[in-house]
Specification:
By secondary structure, this protein is an alpha+beta fold. The protein has five helices and twelve strands. It has helices spanning about 55-65, 90-100, 130-145, 145-155, 180-190; strands spanning about 1-10, 15, 20, 30-40, 40-50, 85, 195, 210-215, 215-230, 235-240, 245-250, 255-260. Strands 6, 7, 8, 9, 10, 11 and 12 form a seven-stranded antiparallel beta sheet that branches. Strands 1-5-4 form a three-stranded antiparallel beta sheet. A two-stranded antiparallel ribbon has the order 2-3. A hairpin with a 2-residue loop joins strand 4 (about 30-40) and strand 5 (about 40-50).
C-alpha cells in the first residue's frame, strides 16, 4: 500500500536545454515525480511504502523539491490564489523564460560600459550586464538565436531604418544589439510588434515589454509565467535588470510602457 502527499508549486523545475526537457529524474519509490495539476501550477507528488519511516521520506521529498524555485504555495485546485503561474503558449516560450530566470543570482550588477566584444556570440562577463543583456542571453542560451549577429546583419542591410540617437554612421557590432531602441526596431522589422494591452490579463508569458524609466530611460524585460495578485486582477512578473542585476519582479505598472513584442515564441 502506498501513501503520499502533494505539494503544488508555481513553476516547473529548471529546464534542461541539452535534453530538451525539465530537469527532474525519473520517479522511483520514495522519490518525487512531476505531475501537471492545473494550467496554472505543477505538483510534486511524493509516494512511499507505508512501512517506510516518516522522517526519512519527508526529508527525501524536501530535498528533491528544493531544486524547484518556489513562490508562495497554493492548495491544489484552489480558486483563490495570491500568486499563480500562467501557461506559456509554446515550448519556445518556456525555454526563453527559463533562460532568463537562470540569470538570476548570476548577473548581480548593472554595468553599461562600452565593451569590445567577440563576434558572433560576444558577451560581457555574466556577472554584469544591462537590461538588454537579459534578453540577448535568454535567446542565445534557450533558443540558439544570437541577437548580436542578427541585429548587425539587419543594420548592415538597412542602416537607415534604425535610430540615429548616437551619431553613428555605420553599425557597431559591439553595442548596437545592447541598445533598447535598436532592439525595438529590429523586432518591429521582424514582424514581432504587438499592441500594448490595456490591462494585465492579455500579457503572454514570453512577451517582451519595453518602457521608459523616469520617462526618459529605455528599458526592456521578459514577461514571466509567474503572476501576482488575486482572482481576476493578476499581473505578470518581469524578468529584467534595472540596476541591481537580473531579478524577477512585480514592476509592470511602474513605468510607462511603449512596446510589446513576441519574437520566435
Amino acid at each position: 500500500m502506498v501513501e503520499g502527499w502533494l505539494l503544488c508549486v508555481l513553476s516547473p523545475p529548471p529546464f534542461d536545454f541539452a535534453q530538451d526537457r525539465f530537469a527532474l529524474p525519473p520517479p522511483r519509490n520514495g522519490e518525487v515525480e512531476l505531475a501537471p495539476f492545473t494550467p496554472r501550477s505543477f505538483c510534486l507528488r511524493h509516494t512511499r511504502p507505508k512501512a517506510e519511516g516518516e522522517l526519512t521520506n519527508r526529508r527525501t521529498f524536501l530535498q528533491a523539491s528544493a531544486a524547484v524555485t518556489l513562490l508562495p504555495l497554493i492548495g491544489c485546485g484552489q480558486e483563490q490564489v495570491l500568486a499563480e503561474t500562467a501557461t506559456p503558449a509554446s515550448l519556445a516560450a518556456v525555454k526563453l523564460i527559463a533562460g532568463a530566470r537562470a540569470q538570476i543570482g548570476v548577473t548581480l550588477s548593472y554595468d553599461p560600459a562600452y565593451t569590445a566584444l567577440d563576434f558572433p556570440n560576444g558577451d560581457v562577463p555574466r556577472s554584469i550586464g544591462v537590461c538588454t543583456d537579459v534578453i540577448i542571453r535568454a535567446y542565445r542560451d534557450a533558443l540558439d538565436l544570437d541577437l548580436q549577429a542578427l541585429v548587425n546583419a539587419d543594420m548592415r542591410a538597412a542602416f537607415g531604418a534604425y535610430p540615429k540617437n548616437w551619431g553613428l554612421t555605420k553599425p557597431d557590432r559591439n553595442i548596437d544589439h545592447r541598445r533598447v531602441p535598436n532592439l525595438r526596431r529590429f523586432f518591429a522589422r521582424a514582424g514581432a510588434e504587438m499592441p500594448v494591452p490595456s490591462g494585465f490579463a492579455d500579457w503572454q508569458a514570453g512577451d517582451l515589454v519595453t518602457s521608459m524609466v523616469g520617462g526618459k530611460l529605455p528599458h526592456i524585460g521578459i514577461v514571466s509565467d509567474r503572476r501576482v495578485g488575486a482572482n481576476n486582477a493578476t499581473r505578470p512578473l518581469i524578468i529584467h535588470n534595472i540596476g541591481r542585476g537580473t531579478r524577477e519582479e512585480d514592476i509592470l505598472p511602474d513605468h510607462p510602457i511603449n512596446g510589446r513584442y513576441r519574437w520566435r515564441v
